[in-house]
Amino acid sequence: MFEKILIANRGEIAVRIIRSCKELGIRTVAVYSEADANSMHVQMADEAICIGRAPSSESYLRVDRLISAAEIADVDAIHPGYGFLSENPHFADVCEKCNIRFIGPSSRAMNALQDKAVSRELAKKAGVPVPPGSDGVVETETEALATAKKIGYPVLIKAIAGGGGRGMRIAHNDISLVKGYHTARNEAEKAFGNSGVYIEKYFENPHHIEFQILADQRGNIVHFGERDCSIQRRHQKLIEETPSPLIENKFKDLRKKMGKAAVRIAEIAQYNSTGTVEFIVDDQGNFYFLEVNKRIQVEHPITEEVTGTDLIRLQILIAMGEPLKLSQGDVHFRGHSIECRINAEDPFDDFRPSPGRIEMYYAPGGRGVRVDSHAYAGYVIPSSYDSMIGKLITYGRDRREAIDRMSRALGEYMITGIKTTIAFEQMILQDPDFRRGVYSTGFIEQLMRRGTQ
What we know:
The chain is α+β, with helices and mostly antiparallel strands. It is 35% helix and 26% strand. It has 16 helices and 22 strands. The protein has an eight-stranded antiparallel beta sheet, with helices on both faces. Strands 3-2-1-4-5 form a five-stranded parallel beta sheet, sandwiched between helices. It has a three-stranded antiparallel beta sheet with strand order 7-6-8, covered by helices on one side. It is globular, with a radius of gyration of 21 Å.
């Protein structure tokens, strides 16, 4: 049993990890930047250590400072949360060499899935379909043009490292390809310290569906069903739900096929922790592998709601060497769950970030409502980090009940002093197409176009 864990993250995910640790009887150590001195995770942890100034390059991304804090606090393990260093094999390797358990996949497993181009090759080896694209990193503009000509426009230029829509551009012709290629490389270099990109076929308005997996250190792997993450803007997810209405309404056989594909990829990579295998699905029910997110996902709560599991708890237990005490047949799905990301942004002004002081904060409650957040009245949202300040999750016996409960909960959620995405998400929930479960990754752009007509 771990006695003490350092959480190498901030915000709502740090609070979420602290809660699971407390239930396991494990003491926690928070790290924080100067901008996060009054953050909720600092108040909730048993100990807290400042690791630098506000920029993440001077705090949350500093491996040396995180390891120093871990050694000062004499912790057994580090949980990286998501983002920052959560998918960094070097950080995992340093932890292992310092005799500190990294609560996530091993550096070996991460290296097997070190970037999206390598992951494509692994998926091919597993017999899982991948979108037509380049064989590895595209090194030059000339090679990019040749690749696009071979697979046909439109194409997607993607950073091999990172995610969240950064280092990603769509090209419909040679001119936009050349511009997008250089822009994506520059953006990827700034965001991830790696300018490498690859190119693949771009599918117009596909469905973004991912599978939650969990693997122990003995080769046992199960999946916990799918999440539909197609409600997104510029590749940034806004609303997620499980089960996927596309699979439920049109392609029920896909759940088993895609679940097996996700597990097979994890087997070949010798994966050992929580992770998410992402796919795109077209309107004909064809699916293609995208990437493996080698960490806990932002949207993991909806999976917890429909399966009755605590994924963070299981992740910690696996890191301690515990075997996975369930098989695929033990995973049962009940009801429906939806998550809305509550962001400090103005969706009616091109989603411009809205940092600042929260004047009033009232979180919704009631049956089937869960709020994962680090926000409170008087909290000042820093401009240095991601704009997400919380997640609102609802659960219902079916999709209609989950939607109605989410609509009610959004109406109760009161945050003043800053702009948020709450009203925009309420608008999405009232849209007839969304309520029928008929949507794809182009839904938000289509909704906004209709709103301006």
